[in-house]
């Protein structure tokens, strides 16, 4: 139930937080989702849909420790939205468990991907009085003993959250925090009955600062004028932009429905590819961009439909924060600190991949090297001349998004990598990474469909010593399933072929 009293205001949303708050209110981007597969000690998971006392205790510990899990948002329908203090949180309103019947491992994996997409389609309600995040736990069930033996003792924990609160990296960190709590590690005596209602009667003196307050963005006159000219200059005075493939134009009237497909990369294949990346002085993210370019160049062979491409790489701003501007209590807190780098793939680069007899492997490495160089150049100049610093000039976010309606998208795809989840280290007494405590075995990260952004996303996450998972997400009405099926097949095939041959992607 909503409160009838006025909420206690904490601080105004920052520029990038308004970016996300306005998208949520308009329904054109609703949440980030990071799900993690937990493997539990044998026979320790309850049957059915009950939440264990250890899970409630672990979650309570993380919520008490992380301010951004205890805030609401008021005025999200305005350009003056604020974070609010939530004096009481009933975890039962944030956690649900679903038993998932399945007759094969493949069926269960398909239902996990389907549920990941479902999470993105939900709007958060009562934002002023209820923190906009939720957890859904999927537990496999089957009357097939062979299937159950393969899925036994595992559950998938979905953490979905409003992007104004946190970024994807924070989603990974949340699972690390949850797994490392004494309650989850079996180092804490638990009550027979969980205590899911948390009270925070006194508002905090502060919460993690807005991005602009802890990142010292600087803007040169040349860069600022260039961005403003590109946005507002008369088209007849500007040189025409290179056309790119970006699916259909932005249409904010389309039904919002996120589709998700996953690609799992085995630890062995991942190790082979990472070693090759090091020898070629590129990153895995850069190589994945090159894979996407090679795949889409082949799958969209028409030079009129897809003459060139552009892509984006989100960048964590954590390394670029100013220590003197940041409250030391929030250095490692869950929060949103993100920017992006854009990559352009010219008609010449695309034509080279489409040419008969093209050396696809050599071109993949060449294009990956170019992306790596662009990322390195961007990181070397951060936080100077970054588009995130220009957000302060947008006075009305709702007009901004409506102004995008009907226009072409700026990018063809986005690749976002939230890094590696580390399981709690063993303490040498059977507590930690052993089979006697819960541990992560798979991490799946996805962005929701970006109604006013790139038509598809490739999202990257992994668990140390385990598999890497690519989460492909796209708007149902914007990109055809067949194209995404082919992209997923190609990403898997490139890596499998290289693991097999040690030298070739095709």
Automatic annotation (TrEMBL):
Native source species: Trichoderma arundinaceum
Stored Pfam families: AATase
Annotated SUPFAM superfamilies: CoA-dependent acyltransferases
One annotated GO molecular function: N-acetyltransferase activity
Gene3D superfamilies (alphabetical): Chloramphenicol acetyltransferase-like domain
Keywords for the protein's UniProt record, in alphabetical order: Transferase
Name listed for the protein in its UniProt record: Alcohol acetyltransferase
């Amino acid at each position: 139930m909503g409160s009838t009293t006025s909420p206690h205001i904490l601080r105004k949303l920052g520029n990038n937080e308004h970016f996300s708050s306005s998208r949520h209110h308009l329904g054109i981007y609703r949440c980030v989702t990071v799900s993690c597969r937990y493997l539990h000690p044998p026979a320790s998971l309850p049957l059915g849909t009950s939440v264990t006392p250890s899970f409630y205790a672990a979650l309570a510990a993380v919520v008490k420790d992380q301010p951004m899990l205890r805030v609401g948002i008021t005025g999200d329908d305005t350009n003056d939205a604020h974070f609010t203090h939530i004096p009481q949180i009933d975890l039962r309103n944030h956690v649900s468990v679903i038993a998932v019947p399945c007759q094969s491992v493949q069926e269960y994996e398909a239902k996990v991907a389907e549920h990941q997409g479902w999470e993105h389609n939900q709007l958060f309600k009562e934002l002023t009085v209820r923190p906009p995040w939720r957890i859904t736990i999927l537990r496999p069930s089957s009357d097939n003993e062979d299937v159950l033996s393969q899925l036994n003792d595992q559950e998938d924990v979905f953490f979905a959250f409003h992007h104004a609160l946190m970024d994807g990296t924070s989603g990974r960190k949340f699972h690390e925090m949850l797994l490392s709590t004494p309650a989850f590690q079996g180092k804490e005596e638990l009550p027979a009955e969980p205590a899911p209602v948390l009270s925070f009667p006194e508002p905090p003196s502060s919460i993690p600062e807005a991005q602009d307050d802890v990142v010292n963005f600087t803007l040169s006159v040349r860069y600022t004028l260039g961005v403003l000219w590109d946005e507002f200059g008369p088209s007849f005075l500007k040189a025409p932009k290179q056309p790119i493939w970006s699916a259909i134009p932005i249409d904010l009237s389309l039904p919002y429905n996120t589709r998700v497909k996953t690609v799992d990369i085995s630890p062995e294949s991942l190790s082979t590819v990472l070693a090759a990346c090091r020898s070629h002085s590129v990153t895995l993210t850069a190589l994945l961009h090159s894979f996407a370019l090679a795949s889409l160049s082949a799958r969209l062979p028409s030079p009129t439909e897809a003459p060139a491409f552009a892509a984006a790489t989100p960048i964590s701003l954590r390394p670029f924060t100013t220590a003197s501007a940041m409250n030391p209590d929030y250095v490692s807190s869950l929060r949103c600190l993100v920017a992006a780098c854009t990559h352009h793939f010219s008609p010449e680069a695309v034509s080279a991949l489409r040419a008969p007899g093209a050396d696809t492997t050599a071109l993949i490495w060449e294009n990956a090297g170019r992306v790596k160089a662009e990322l390195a150049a961007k990181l070397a100049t951060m936080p100077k001349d970054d588009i995130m610093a220009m957000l302060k000039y947008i006075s009305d976010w709702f007009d901004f998004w409506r102004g995008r309606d009907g226009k072409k998208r700026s990018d063809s795809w986005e690749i976002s990598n939230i890094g590696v989840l580390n399981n709690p280290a063993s303490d040498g007494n059977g507590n930690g990474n052993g089979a006697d405590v819960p541990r992560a075995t798979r991490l799946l990260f996805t962005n929701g469909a970006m109604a006013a952004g790139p038509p598809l996303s490739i999202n990257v996450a992994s668990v140390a010593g385990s598999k890497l998972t690519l989460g492909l997400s796209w708007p149902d009405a914007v990109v055809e399933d067949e194209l995404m099926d082919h992209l997923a097949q190609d990403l898997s095939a490139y890596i499998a072929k290289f693991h097999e041959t040690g030298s070739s992607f095709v």
